[in-house]
Amino acid sequence: MRQIVLLLMCAMSIWSSILPAVEQIKVEALFSGQAMVTVDGKRRLLKLNKPSPEGLILISADSREAVIELDGKQQVYSLGSHVSTKFNQPEKVSAKIWRDQSGSYTTVGTINGRTVNFLVDTGASAVAMYRNDAKRLGIQYRLEGDPMYVSTANGTAPAYEVSLDRVQVGDIVLRQVRGFVIESTGSGRVLLGMSFLNQVKMEDQGAVLMLHRKF
User: Fold this and answer.
1) H-assigned helices in the chain
2) Is-contact 207 182, C-beta < 8 A?
3) Total structural domains in the chain?
4) How many C-beta atoms surround the C-beta of residue 55 within 10 A?
5) Cα angle at 191 between 136 and 132, to 5 degrees?
6) CATH number of the domain that residue 196 is part of
7) Between vectors from CA 114 to CA 198 and to CA 75, what angle results, nearest 5°?
8) Residue 84: what pLDDT?
9) Which of 8, 25, 29, 122 is 20 to 30 A from 58, alpha carbon to alpha carbon?
């Protein structure tokens, strides 16, 4: 039995040593349960749990992103994403937010591809905006949202809970982020609340707030 175990360990070691080293991976197309990728210039169609000749294993995939494993490490890839260094050492995705004259952290970002002014608010449970911002952004909150009430500086107000398809701050892009649309007009600033901030690592450096994407 011991000899069999040793033989198996040797076989696994030999197999891992003959797998080619992966230097570049690019996602070209995404489907349900499949991903078309280019690996060091060679096109591969990855299928769930079926290793490629380079040892890539597709864990999950849909039309938005894929989870690919290599050497026991998993990483999320979106359409068109590209890594030209070691696969298990992805580039850190960060955003830098400066403190304004009032002492608040404010920045310009996007929601569903449209520009907004964000105010970082750790007291807000979600990304929150007033109805005038929602209309400008094309969010059909009355048709697609769920009615509710939220607490504001002026008391309780009617609102709608929505799912924001794409929220971006700096190089950080998050999808399907929980949001609130308050049924009144406001200042035009969108609160960057905890539904976004819980998915990043925050580093307060005094004059600047650093956000790092969690992988």
Assistant:
1) 2-18, 131-137, 141-144, 194-197
2) no
3) 2
4) 18
5) 25
6) 2.40.70.10
7) 45
8) 54
9) 8
